[in-house]
Amino acid sequence: MSEADPRRWKALVFIALAQLMVVLDATIVNIALPSAQEDLGISDGNRQWVITAYALAFGGLLLFGGRIADLWGRKRTFVTGLIGFAVASALGGAATGEAMMLGARALQGVFGALLAPAALSLLAVMFTDAKERAKAFGIYGAIAGGGGAVGLILGGFLTEYLNWRWTFFVNIPFAVIAALGAYFVISEPAGTRNRSPLDIPGVVLSTLGLVTLVYGFTRAESEGWSDSVTIGAFVASVVLLAAFVVTEARVKSPLLPLRVLTERNRGGVYLSLGLAIIAMFGLFLFLTYYLQIVKGYSPVKTGFAFLPMIVGMIVGSTQLGARLMTRVPPRLLMAPGFLLAALGMLLLTQLEIGTSYAGLILPAQLMLGLGMGTAFMPAMSLSTHGVEARDAGVASAMVNTSQQVGGAIGTALLNTIAASATSAYLVDHVAEGGNLKLVQAQAMVEGYTSAIWWAVGILALAALIAATFINTGHQGGPGASGDADSAEGTEGEVKIPVMAH
Predict the structure, then answer these.
(1) Beta carbons within 8 Å of 410's beta carbon, 6+ residues apart
(2) Which residues cross the membrane (predicted)?
(3) Torsion of CA 28, 29, 35, 37, to 10 degrees
(4) Which residues neighbour 132 within 8 Å (Cβ) at sequence distance 6 or greater?
């Protein structure tokens, strides 16, 4: 058994801080966007690119970032990612026009793609004891799930009381503290690097394939699903990703060894987690609009309205998930977790203009948070399940990729469903006369609830995939993995060489 790193818990603080910064950035800019758009003179047609530029760079380069972490060293990649992210954030905060803003967002995405897989793979190689691993991944899972909602609160505060520029500048202290902490505290286990030469065709095909996939979904949101460029992007992404899989099966040192994907437990995690994120990101968007436009909440009040979900996430991850992960098989946490979240989502299909926050939205959010937190925790740990240390970065990148692509798909897919339901409602009811403002508000709510029904179905599918694909035993040391008898090399643990002193 490898000797544990004595400074691993201190290291977790800095890894968690960096992860929080990356996750915050996915939503913090959403609330600041209207003010930034006005200040910088960004057109309505181009404003989505402030979000999309980040998503494309981040989603497209994650696998490359994960492989760089395995090749170059996770600590070095992590610190480089943090410094680059801080510089890109400073540029975004100081932006004087549209081009500078979009460039800064793309740059944030590039360094985020280095940072995120390096953070998760550092956890995978530093925490080898089953119970400690459960706690560490519980904290990480809570941040990965709840950070987006924290971003809404912080974004509201900064935009309302300071200035939209602070939604960028706030990243700088996070990044500097995490980089200094990582530099002085983190020490990687020896012999865990993968020094095979870089698979350049794999890098090009995976990056182009993921970028065109994410672009296809974001384009569908603004131009519709029948738009020729949207269809072209989807066709191109299928061709490129198929070519990527064929290439990976043939090259000697693949960017993404297919063994990382084909192990059924990891495959089940990537798939179910991606689906769950589709549902969750769509919900963030609709609830934000519902509370601000229909209910008339301020940005700060809207942010605070998401608190029950954050509390649920933290309790689900650190109390339920982390405590039970060493006792029960992951599928018995993930499937019920996703189902509980689906029930919370089901409550939200009852939204109306006059819905009581305390009577319906608060309990629905608590159920969603508890369910997602409980499911995220074992999912984050299983994403590097049984993986060789040399593949830890790429396996970590895959879980980030499924989340990122899921987020892009969720926002576009559910937004499109909501928009068409809203239009249909308006067509049916405007002719009837009455208060136009009231009809418009009702049409918006009709759109949100139609999309939320889809989110319920998507979460139920995530639960089904988790229940059928994931068959490993609990992650609790000797014999944990069901068919393995000894503690040495059980499937439930990452195979880590002995720690260097």
Answers:
(1) 277, 278, 279, 280, 281, 282
(2) 12-33, 48-65, 77-95, 107-127, 139-158, 164-186, 198-217, 229-247, 268-291, 303-320, 332-351, 451-470
(3) -170
(4) 4, 8
Residues in the chain: 501
Integer CA distances (angstroms), 436 to 355, 431, 441, 471, in order: 20, 10, 9, 54
What are the backbone dihedrals phi and psi of residue 495, each rounded to the nearest 5 degrees, phi first?
A: -80, 105
Least trusted range by pLDDT, from 359-363, 370-374, 431-435, 460-464 = 431-435
Paired tokens of 169: 């500048």
Instruction: Report d(CA 356, CA 436) in Å as an integer.
Output: 23
421-458 pLDDT, tens digit per residue, is 888 888 887 766 667 788 888 888 998 899 999 999 99
- CA 276 – CA 278 distance, rounded (Å): 5
pLDDT digits (tens, 9 = 90+) for 229-240: 999 999 999 999
Question: Tokens for 500?
Answer: 């260097």
Greatest distance between any 2 Cα atoms in the chain: 78
Nearest residue to 399 via CA among 132, 184, 220, 144? 144
3 state DSSP class of 463:
helix
Q: Is the dihedral of CA 286, 28, 140, 402 positive or negative?
A: positive
Which one of 106-110, 255-259, 318-322 scores highest in mean pLDDT? 106-110
Kindly provide the b/e burial profile for residues 339-368, where b requires at least 16 CB atoms within 10 angstroms of the residue's own CB: bbbbebbbbbeebeeeeeeeeebeebbbbb
Asked if 409 and 278 touch (Cβ cutoff 8 Å), the reply is: yes
* Helix, coil or strand: residue 388: strand
Q: How confident is the model at residue 55 (pLDDT cuts 50, 70, 90)?
A: confident
